């Protein structure tokens, strides 16, 4: 695949993704809220995973 064809395909995929997002009610480039930005931090995700594993272990043992 040539570079021009790859760029054309990439642009087409971007356009299709944007149209699909608008069709399902997701605005293009929606700003992240403060709560959502904090949730996606790797440390927050790791802590949530640890807390869930701990809760499952305690539930299993009780």
Radius of gyration over alpha carbons?
Answer: 20 Å
Uncertain segments of ≥5 residues (pLDDT<50)? none
Category by helix and strand content: mainly alpha
Q: Span between N and C termini?
A: 59 Å
Shape: elongated
* Total number of distinct structural domains: 1
Q: What average pLDDT do the residues reach?
A: 81
Percent range for helical residues? over 70%
Task: Please give a quick description of this structure.
The chain is 76% helix and 0% strand.
Q: What do these coordinates show?
A:
With 62 residues, this protein is mainly alpha-helical. The protein has one domain. The radius of gyration is 20 Å and the shape is elongated. It starts with a helix and ends with a helix. Keywords: Membrane, Transmembrane, Transmembrane helix.
Notable characteristics:
elongated, mainly alpha, 0% strand, 62 residues
Give the helices and strands, then pairings.
Blueprint: H1 3-23, H2 34-39, H3 42-61
């Amino acid at each position: 695949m040539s570079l021009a064809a790859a760029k054309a395909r990439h642009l087409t995929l971007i356009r299709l993704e944007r149209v699909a997002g608008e069709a399902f009610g997701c605005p293009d480039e929606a700003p992240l809220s403060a709560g959502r930005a904090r949730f996606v931090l790797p440390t927050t995700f790791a802590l949530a995973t640890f807390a869930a594993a701990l809760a499952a272990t305690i539930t299993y043992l009780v």
